[in-house]
Amino acid sequence: MKKILVPTDLSATAEMGLKLAVEIARKCGASISLVNFTKHPYGTTFSAMGDITLKKDPEEDLYAIELLKNMKLKLEELVQKYKTGDFAMEIAVVDNEFKNGIDEYLSAEEIDLIVMGTSGEENGQEVFTGNHTDQAIRVSTCPVLSVRDGFNIDYMKRIVVAVNVITDNKLADGLVTIRELAECFDSEIHLVHVRDNASDSTLILDEYFNQIAQIAGLKKYSVRVLENNDKSQGLINYAREIRAGLIAIIKNSKEGIFRIFSNHFAERMIREEGRPVVTVKL
Questions:
Q1: Integer Cα distance of 14 and 150 in angstroms
Q2: Partner of 67 at 20 to 30 A CA spacing, among 9, 147, 176, 194?
Q3: What pTM did the predictor assign?
């Protein structure tokens, strides 16, 4: 966890992502890149002090430049508001729309984690709704942490991880990422598998997940095998019971199809839970 990307449209919803990213940066010693994705004609990243190529319409140029200057000023104000600690924070206005911009930004920068605020709504009217969270999850090679209002940083001592059986110890790879995040907050990891009556026995599953935890190097952890025909609800119930501060979902993709948990599972977690949800895509 060395570099965290926080996409922002300068809304209160997006600012929730920055609040959580700052907490993580303080604990992990990571740096934060606060980035606004806005299509504009003045280069990949806009600097009000840099040289720009003006268009033929002076009024349009003036309007666009003032708009970008104002955006840059607001980003700087956010830095002044939240830069309280020994960590670096940089800003940028990237010349691209969100979906393509975040993909290209991740390719150019060594980002370890994306943290973004979400309203948890499904109507798609806000810039940072679950739709854009899902876009980030689809293109990102690093974990995506979404956060709604009302999260409690004190609860980060308990992290619930939704797990399932997959081959070749790939699950352990995903758990290493969760372990690194847990170490920042000295958290206990709760590995939770929700099965139906037709699944393998609890004893076999318990042995499997303990073995995977050892491979991933987990130290403070527990394994819980629960029964519920609704996997989402079973996980939500457990997270609420122990007052978990974070829910983690590990996805294994093959040929574009998520084999462990469907997109609906992750979207439901983000929509219904007030606590942060991190998605790790193998």
A1: 14
A2: 147
A3: 0.83
Nearest Cα residue to 12 out of 103, 156, 169, 127: 127
- CATH code for residues 3-147: 3.40.50.620
Gap between the Cα atoms of 38 and 58, Å rounded: 20
Report the CATH number of the 153-281 domain: 3.40.50.620
User: Are the beta carbons of 218 and 254 closer than 8 angstroms?
Assistant: no
* Distance in angstroms (rounded) separating the CA atoms of residues 238 and 223: 12
- The answer to whether the beta carbons of residues 158 and 188 sit under 8 Å apart is yes
d(CA 17, CA 4): 11
Give the residues across from 7 on adjacent strands: 35
**Three-state SS across the chain?**
CCEEEEECCCCHHHHHHHHHHHHHHHHHCCEEEEEEECCCCCCCECCCCCCCCCCCCHHHHHHHHHHHHHHHHHHHHHHHHHCCCCCCEEEEEECCCHHHHHHHHHHHCCCCEEEEECCCCCCCCCCCCHHHHHHHHHHCCCCEEEECCCCCHHHHHEEEEECCCCCCCHHHHHHHHHHHHHHHHCCEEEEEEEECCCCCCHHHHHHHHHHHHHHCCCCCEEEEEEECCCHHHHHHHHHHHHCCCEEEEEECEECCEECCCCHHHHHHHHHHCCCCEEEEEC
Average pLDDT over residues 237-242: 92
**Does 228 have pLDDT greater than 70?**
yes
For CATH 3.40.50.620, the residue range(s) in the chain are 3-147, 153-281
Rounded to whole angstroms, how far apart are CA atoms 96 and 94? 6
Angle (CA) 19 23 27, round 5°: 165
Segment 150-154 shows an average pLDDT of 78
